[in-house]
Write a structure and sequence with these properties.
Layout: H1 4-30, H2 34-40, H3 44-72, H4 76-102
Amino acid sequence: MTDAGATNRAVQGLGFAAGIYLALDAMSTLNSSPWTHETFGGNPGKAESAQRYVRLSIVTSTGLAFMTSALMGSLTPLLGSTVANVGLFYIYHQAKMKAVSRGG
């Protein structure tokens, strides 16, 4: 006999992981690496272009996670996406700041 609570927790865990995957996959699809940001981000035009893709990937993954949450009837995919996006934003922002501090 299956414990319904354990099954629900497993599904919620998968939803959380799906949200994380959506964020990571959107960033890798729409954007380059933090290393690229750090290497070329000192150029104002390139930095703005790179940051545009950071924003686009966050919006894309949040939208997909929202739809996944609606389909699941649970906020866990949206929560997972949010956690991953906060981390990704921080990583890419730090790479940009390193590039700016070096001056191009």
